[in-house]
Amino acid sequence: MRITVVEDNTSLRKGIAYRLEDDGHSVDALADGDAADQFLRQEASDLVILDINLPGQSGLDILRRMRGRDDPRPVILLTARAATEDRVAGLDLGADDYLVKPFAMDELAARVRALARRREVAPRQHIALGALRLDLDPLHLHGPDGSMEVPRRELTLLAALAEARGAPLSKDQLLDHMYGTGSASDERVVEVYISRLRKRLAPFGVAIRVRRGIGYALDLGAA
User: Fold this and answer.
1) Contact indicator for 170, 215 with CB cutoff of 8 Å
2) Are 200 and 161 in contact (CB under 8 A)?
3) DSSP-derived 3-state class of residue 220
4) Which of 25, 82, 144, 151 is most buried, with most CB under 10 Å away?
5) What whole-number distance in Å separates Cα of residue 150 and Cα of residue 7?
6) CB burial class (10 A; 0-12, 13-18, 19+) of residue 73?
7) Peptide bond preceding 138: is omega within 30 degrees of 0, i.e. cis?
8) Using CB atoms within 10 A of its CB, is residue 132 exposed (0-12), middle (13-18) or buried (19+)?
9) CATH class given for the domain over 2-119
10) Neighbouring-strand partners of residue 208
11) Strands 47-51 and 75-79, how do they pair?
12) Which residues bind DNA (predicted)?
């Protein structure tokens, strides 16, 4: 999944992002309420983890605006407030879940998995890629002889291409999926991972084609 994390505490924000990325998710991490509100109006994601106390707009303000424009994305609220009325206020505004700081990362990961299962439209659990099967949650690739060991970044890139269903994705779009929006990673990183994936996929009849000036797309018809 692509997850937006909005948390102004740098250590906590990085800790959440690292854990979610280790679980195979793509993370966009933001620290400011106003920037987060603008980001959520423009960018797609599957789930939002939202701190209540933020510089600029509060998390509750952001949530109110999301639900006001019929944005159905699941939201987990984070806060240091333990009072019952604060939890009730967040849930009444449309939050799907609530965690009070401090919390264990294992618990957050479990809440994320639970919300993924509860999404109104169930996501596809796997995608057939020629002789291969790509599991989406958690990310894993299977071949004719069973499970394949593939580095996480390669899996994230492959999932982005697979879910595009043959439509080309630019290097910037692929970087966003691999590292989150605003990453300082060089576009040449994409070329490295594309090259590795091509070698890995070629024996199974799956190719990655270049659409010059546009980006990369999967081709399942390769011999």
Assistant:
1) yes
2) no
3) coil
4) 25
5) 31
6) middle
7) yes
8) buried
9) alpha beta
10) 218
11) parallel
12) 124-220
- Note whether 218 and 161 are within 8 A (CB): yes
Query: What is the CATH topology of the domain spanning 126-220?
Result: Arc Repressor Mutant, subunit A (1.10.10)
Instruction: Order across the sheet with 126-129: list the strands.
Output: 126-129, 132-136, 139-143, 146-148
pTM of the model: 0.57
Domain locations in the chain?
2-119, 126-220
Quote helix, strand, coil % in the chain, to nearest 5.
Answer: 40, 25, 35
Tell me what the mean pLDDT of segment 60-83 comes to: 87
Whole-angstrom distance, CA of residue 129 vs CA of residue 179: 24
Please state, in angstroms and rounded to a whole number, the distance separating the CA atoms of residues 85 and 119: 26
Residue 174 CA to residue 193 CA, distance in Å, equals: 10
Q: Coil, helix or strand for 117?
A: helix
Strand blocks (E) in the chain: 2-6, 26-30, 47-51, 75-79, 97-100, 126-129, 132-136, 139-143, 146-148, 207-211, 215-219
DSSP string spanning 181-213?
Answer: TT----THHHHHHHHHHHHHHGGGT-EEEEETT
Q: What is the pLDDT of residues 4-53, one digit of tens each?
A: 999 999 999 999 999 999 988 889 999 999 999 999 988 878 899 999 99
Average pLDDT over residues 80-109: 84
Fold matches, 2-119 and 126-220: no
